[in-house]
């Protein structure tokens, strides 16, 4: 962990992606150098959970309707790429005299690409939903499906008899259809009910634990039936991709996914055998570049099956020209069963690690490389995606869709202003979404939820719930995304006015003071005060943060509940007797700021003295009006009268 932290910090400083840092940390900590982990394969299962979470997150992005819309890409381009690439890379070792069983496995391993690196890098670059990336993702999805026949065939290739292989593949196909059908049924009918009940408990820990449990159970089920764990997690995520809990699920799973994905890349680096790399350096480097060039050409050829734009096809090929993480799994299994030699397996791992290390740079420059190959400029929107709606801009994000949030939404709708609401009440979200309201289920204080609501391009983020600590978190997360979006916070009272402004709020609206201000406006209007003067007064009060609306005179019926005694502001009249300690002193000589109270006024001989002069000398029978918290007012009165 220490090596990974140092490596990521160093690579970030020199502007290299974290994936390379994890690979470097793995090589450094592996058995070839520091030997921190003498047996890195022991960490592989834990690291594979990172891929499970990654595919679960990907499933949330690619819901069933979206996947059906992309079926021509998945089963057209994906199938074509897998067949073409496997055939080509099977012929090369076969030509070199390697047995056909080993050649088929080598061809399959080299045909696969890295789902983990491509999706993680695309997510960090913010290009996951553009057309050329979705083309690459479609191919990756089919490759993940294609892993299953190889895992089944490897033990059988070590035996003799073609009938057993055909029967095993047929049996695997039936198992796959059953498991996929079962998971899709559970995901459609059972999982929404489960998450609805969990959400009603309003327990964040339970929601997170349930999310992790569902992802692992789905992966474990497919693994039990001989399929890939990642496939089960993807199906579970895909079934939940259309639910109202999509964004919260994605936000909850992300920290675990990122940590375990980092661990996965560390284990990949550990598998690099430096002795094999040194002894066969020329062959490996030549093989990596030949492999990448061939895969780019073959992916482009497969993309012609659906008449994809040339730049899209070449760009997808550049993204997918590395060797995938499942190639290591297939190579290790083939070595165990004697289909591949340990030297052949080591060569595949070395080529895979080097190609993975080059992938972040290739992805950053994939469009540029594709444009140079085609020799023309991009003539379409680079961020356009298959069937996706335009993201909202200059909209209002309403955090909390209760009474206040819904009232604001209705007024915005009447003015034709777009908005997105975020709420944690599952029943309210369900009812609102059924009515066609743009409501996201999630915790507005989480950065990922605000990103999914397009906070970066929003005009205003409005916090309507009266939870000051959570409101401050919303402000902080919004400011971490953008400094141009205004943040407005609604509170019931003005207790935390200053702290909310200090946290970064542009406007704080205390409901009680605003209600009083509206009432005062009506009273002044009926009293004959011109409307222009009323509006000026209202603006002045808001600008002065409701200075004239703070504090009140307590009475016998004033209730001070536990926890509010240090929040209320009282106004109290202190009558200065002839023996009062402060008689004969100037107001400026009394340290009211130290007593943490404010002077509201001074009455002398029955007349009110507005804004008393600081040089004014206090006399007997003066009435000094002070304001502050109850305990402070009490201590200030004792100080004024008794001097202690």
Describe this protein's structure.
The chain has 644 residues and is of the alpha/beta class. It folds into 3 domains: 32-160 and 170-372, Na+/H+ antiporter like fold (Up-down Bundle), CATH 1.20.1530; 396-531 and 538-544, 3-Layer(aba) Sandwich (Rossmann fold), CATH 3.40.50.720; 570-642, Regulator of K+ conductance, C-terminal domain (Alpha-Beta Plaits). The protein contains 27 helices and 10 strands. It has helices at residues 2-13, 18-29, 44-61, 64-69, 71-95, 100-111, 115-125, 131-157, 162-200, 204-224, 229-240, 246-270, 274-279, 281-303, 310-319, 325-336, 342-364, 366-374, 403-414, 426-434, 447-452, 468-481, 497-503, 511-526, 531-543, 592-595, 630-642; strands spanning 396-399, 419-423, 439-441, 460-463, 486-491, 507-510, 570-575, 598-604, 607-609, 623-628. Strands 3-2-1-4-5-6 form a 6-stranded parallel sheet, with helices on both faces. The chain has a 4-stranded antiparallel sheet with strand order 7-10-8-9. Strand 1 (396-399), helix 19 (403-414) and strand 2 (419-423) form a beta-alpha-beta unit. The longest helix has 39 residues, at 162-200. Residues 378-389 have low confidence and may be disordered.
């Amino acid at each position: 962990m220490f090596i990974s932290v140092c490596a990521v910090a160093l690579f970030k400083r020199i502007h290299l992606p974290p994936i390379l840092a994890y690979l470097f940390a793995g090589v450094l900590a592996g058995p070839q150098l520091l030997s921190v982990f003498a047996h890195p394969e022991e960490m592989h299962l834990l690291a594979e959970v990172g891929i499970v979470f990654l595919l679960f997150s990907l499933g949330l992005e690619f819901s069933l309707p979206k996947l059906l819309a992309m079926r021509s890409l998945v089963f057209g381009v994906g199938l074509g790429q897998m067949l073409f690439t496997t055939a080509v890379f099977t012929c090369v070792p076969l030509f070199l005299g390697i047995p056909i069983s080993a050649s088929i496995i080598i061809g399959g391993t080299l045909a696969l690409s890295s789902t983990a690196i491509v999706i993680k890098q695309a997510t960090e670059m913010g290009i996951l939903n553009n057309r050329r990336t979705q083309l690459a993702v479609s191919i990756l999805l089919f490759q993940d499906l294609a892993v299953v026949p190889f895992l089944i065939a490897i033990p059988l290739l070590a035996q003799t008899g073609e009938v057993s292989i055909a029967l095993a593949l047929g049996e695997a196909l039936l198992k796959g259809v059953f498991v996929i059908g079962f998971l899709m049924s559970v995901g459609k009918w059972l999982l929404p009910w489960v998450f609805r009940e969990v959400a009603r408990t309003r327990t964040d820990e339970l929601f997170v634990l349930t999310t992790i449990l569902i992802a692992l159970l789905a992966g474990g089920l497919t693994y039990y039936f001989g399929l890939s764990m990642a496939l089960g997690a993807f199906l579970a995520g895909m079934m939940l991709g259309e639910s109202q809990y999509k964004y919260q699920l994605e936000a909850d799973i992300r920290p675990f996914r990122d940590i375990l994905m980092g661990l996965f890349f560390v284990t990949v680096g550990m598998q690099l055998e430096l002795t094999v790399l040194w002894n066969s350096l020329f062959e490996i480097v030549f093989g990596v570049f030949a492999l990448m060039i061939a895969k780019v050409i073959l992916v482009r050829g497969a993309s012609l099956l659906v008449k994809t734009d040339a730049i899209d096809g070449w760009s997808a090929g550049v993204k997918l020209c590395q060797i995938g993480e499942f190639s290591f799994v297939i190579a290790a299994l083939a070595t165990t069963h004697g289909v591949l030699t340990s030297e052949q397996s080591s060569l595949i791992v070395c080529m895979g690690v080097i190609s993975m290390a080059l992938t972040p740079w290739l992805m950053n420059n994939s469009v540029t490389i594709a444009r140079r190959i085609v020799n023309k400029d991009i003539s379409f929107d680079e961020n356009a995606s298959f069937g996706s709606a335009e993201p909202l801009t200059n909209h209002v994000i309403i955090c909390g869709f209760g009474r206040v949030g819904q009232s604001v939404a209705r007024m915005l709708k009447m003015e034709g202003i777009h908005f997105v609401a975020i709420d944690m009440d599952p029943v309210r979200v369900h009812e609102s979404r059924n009515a066609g309201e743009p409501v996201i289920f999630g915790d507005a204080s989480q950065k990922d939820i605000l990103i999914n609501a397009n906070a970066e391009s929003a005009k205003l983020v409005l916090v309507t719930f009266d939870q000051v600590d959570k409101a401050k978190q919303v402000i902080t997360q919004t400011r971490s995304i953008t400094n141009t979006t205004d943040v407005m916070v609604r509170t019931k009272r003005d207790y935390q006015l200053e702290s909310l402004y200090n946290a970064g709020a542009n406007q704080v609206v205390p409901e009680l003071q605003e209600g009083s201000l509206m009432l005062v406006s009506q009273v002044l209007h009926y009293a004959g005060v011109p409307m222009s003067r009323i509006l000026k007064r209202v603006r002045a009060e808001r600008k002065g943060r409701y200075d004239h609306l703070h504090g009140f005179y307590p009475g016998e019926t004033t209730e001070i509940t536990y926890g509010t005694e240090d929040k209320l502001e009282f106004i109290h009249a202190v009558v200065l007797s002839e023996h009062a300690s402060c008689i004969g002193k100037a107001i400026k000589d009394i340290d009211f700021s130290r007593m943490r109270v404010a002077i509201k006024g001074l009455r002398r001989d029955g007349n009110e003295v507005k804004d008393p002069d600081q040089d004014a000398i206090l006399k007997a029978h003066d009435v000094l009006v002070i304001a502050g918290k109850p305990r402070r007012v009490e201590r200030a009165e004792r100080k004024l009268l008794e001097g202690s």
